[in-house]
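quick one if you have a minute, typing this from the bus. theres a chain ive been looking at and ive put its sequence and its fold in token form underneath. please have a look and point out which stretches look like helix strand or loop to you. anything you notice is useful, everything is just below.

***
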Amino acid sequence: MAGHSKWANIQHRKGRQDEKRGKIWTRIIREITVAARAGGGDLGTNPRLRLAVDRAKAANMPADRVKYNIDKATGSVEGITYEEIRYEGYGIGGAALIVDTMTDNKVRTVAEVRHAFSKFGGNMGTEGSVAFQFKHCGQIIFAPGTSEDKVMEVALESGAEDVIRDDEGAIEVITSVTDFEAVKNALEAAGLTPDMAEVTMRPENPIELSGDEAIRMQKLLDAIEDLDDVQGVYHNAELDTE
């Protein structure tokens, strides 16, 4: 089925992430720590940890660094205890935002997140205020030019929920969280390499922002993403800053 254009926004987001590559390892280490502490250090029985280790490999993190952080989280090495906290709020033009954090000091974190929202034109919301506008799911995206028929055949046979082609030809595969890994592995085994693959909070009703509103929204997103305790930021704004 067809969907409207998301490819430019995906590439824009990836570019922003590349600019902030120095923070990626820190965020991956926190995810490894929390995943290992919650589900144990065995990759075979801890899918969340497997995904975190996959992210570490993709970010070229050394294997000994990964092992050290798994050991630290499971008690072999003394370390810091992180708490996962989610914040919700509104950005420019009423755009919905979800901010996932991992912190060893929630008083500091909530103050920093609230300050970023207020300084750059957003508003913190209460728990549940915008989460209903997102779907927790697996998202696997292929660049324009990828065979839609092949992606659809493999994806649906391996348990995907939907396959969506946008106006620019990018193909998006939607899975349940539990089926994400199996679908991703099946696609890669078929020679289909995704441009992006992650478990995410996918917006159900995107809103388009352009001109000054898009620029202001990007400044708000940058301010939140730059906070040390922030692990992920999800929003329903499609930005046209040209």
Notes: The beta strands are 83-90, 96-103, 123-124, 134-142, 162-165, 171-175, 196-203, 207-210, 230-235, 237-240. The first strand starts at residue 83 and ends at 90. The helical segments are 7-19, 21-39, 47-58, 63-73, 106-119, 148-157, 180-189, 211-225.
